[in-house]
Amino acid sequence: MLQPALSDPGAVSKKKPWYIENPDSYNTLRREVENIFPELSFVERVGEVCIEGDLHILDNSGKVLYRFSIRVKLSEQSPRGLPTVWETGGRIPWERERHMNPHDGSACIYLPEEFWYENPNGISISEFIRGPLTGFLINQILIDKSENHKWLKGEWDHGENGIIEFYAEHLGTSEPNNILRCLTMLRKKDTKEIKGHWLCPCGSGHKLRDCHRLNINELHKRIPSEVTEASHTKLKRAVQELRNSH
To answer: Whose CA is closest to 75, among 128, 118, 39?
Structure first.
């Protein structure tokens, strides 16, 4: 049974993870995942819950073609939130070109903004494993087979460049300062409605009602403020470092 002691007693007081607040939902989720993926099991540690074991890549007949050892850390905010993933068998090099974080080996399966824009209500952990995670691992297999492999369904750039690429598609500008203005607008937790008389952050000089209001409204509705807050911090730091280098 999951115990509240999972929370680090030395940590600053904050909202408890959903799996502590809702043990019944957690136990239901655990049974579901372990039934669908018998080679995976839940591991409870202080401060986190992970799913660990082997994930099988199957052919159309159900034959196991490849096995990957993985660790999937559950989101603390929601059972349908974006988890953190590591490939623990050493098959995938920790390289940015392979969409692996060189610092800690975590997998860059989703740009957070992309995840929430595509899935405003999130997705279950079973759906995540069966869909995005399995797709990510298949891409890694294909990369090993061919240096010229193009990432299935496309790919974002790394770090702050990926953030810029995502918002550029919605604002029609890749100017970092314009993206920062957009993130400043979106990250405000107390902003319940984007006002049409505000200046559009795209840099056109027009008011939102005459420019990208629909796009901004969709971003505001779909992407949680903590995601835009984190991206704002990362991009602002990158822009400042660029200024200081000149």
So the answer is: 128
pLDDT tens digits, one per residue of 68-115? 999 999 999 999 999 999 999 999 999 998 999 999 999 999 999 999
The tokens for 84 are 């953190």
CA-nearest of 164, 170, 174, 183 to 228 is 183
pTM as predicted: 0.86
How many Å apart are CA 106 and CA 114, to the nearest integer? 17
> And the tokens for 217?
């409204």
If you search the block for the tokens 């995942």, which residue do you land on? 33
**Position of tokens 């975590």?**
106
Round to whole Å and give the CA distance between 222 and 118: 8
DSSP 204: S
| Residues 19-44 pLDDT 10s | 999 999 999 999 999 999 999 999 99
pLDDT, average across residues 193-222: 94
Q: Are 99 and 92 in contact (CB under 8 A)?
A: no
In the sheet with 40-45, reading across from the earlier edge strand, the strands are: 40-45, 48-58, 64-73, 84-87
- Other beta carbons less than 10 A from residue 168's beta carbon: 17
Q: Which helix (H) or strand (E) holds 68?
A: strand 64-73
Distance of CA 202 to the CA centre of its chain: 25
